[in-house]
Amino acid sequence: TLFLFIVMCQTVTEQGADTFVEDYLLWHHFGKKTKEENLDLVHSFKQSIQSVLNPRNLSLFINSYLQRTDLQIHRPDKTTSKKVLCLKCPALLITGATSPHQDDVVNTNARLDPEISTYFSVSESGGMPLEEQPHKVATSVFLFLQGLGYCKYMM
Fold first, then answer.
1. Model confidence over 72-110: pLDDT tens digits?
2. pTM, to two decimals
3. Which contacts qualify for 60-66: CB closer than 8 Å, 24 or more apart?
C-alpha cells in the first residue's frame, strides 16, 4: 500500500491526476457501493477532480497522508490509577455503513472513553454520509448535542 501511495504521489506531481489516481480518490471518498449507486455525486466529484484540483496540492495531500502519525490515545481504565493519554472532550464519530474507512473509525471509537463518545454508522451511506444522508447526519448531531445539554428543542 505504501508503494502505491508513493507511485501515486509521483504520478500526480509529474502528470496530474490520471485514471489510477482518479479511481483511488473515488474509492477513498465514496467506497465501492456509493461509487456504483450514487452516480450523480460521483460524476460531480470526477468533474471537480479534472477541472479544479491542483496537482501540486493533491501531491502534498497524499504526502501528508503518508506521513501522518498515530494519535496515541487510549481508552481510560477506571479500575486502575494508571494515567493514559485520552481524549477528554465529548466526541461524535460518524461513518457511512459501507465506508471504506469504517474499520478505522470503529478502531478509533474503541480507544475513546465510552462515557463521552458516541459512534454513529449512517445506514445506506458510503464514504460521504453528509452528502449522501444529510438528514440522518443532522439528526445524529442534534441528538448528540441534546445529550450534552446544548439543545433542548428541535426548531
1. 888 888 888 788 888 899 999 999 998 888 998 999 999
2. 0.73
3. 62/5, 62/8, 62/9, 62/12, 63/9, 65/5, 66/2, 66/5, 66/6, 66/9
One-letter identity of residue 124: E
Contacts 24+ apart (CB under 8 A), 50-55: 50/17, 50/22, 53/17, 55/12, 55/13, 55/15, 55/16, 55/17
How many residues belong to the chain?
155
Phi, psi of 120 (to 5 degrees): -135, 120
User: Look-up: residue for cell 501528508?
Assistant: 64
Q: What's the number of CA atoms in the CB half-sphere (13 Å) around residue 28?
A: 12
Chain segment 20-29, per-residue pLDDT in tens: 777 777 777 7
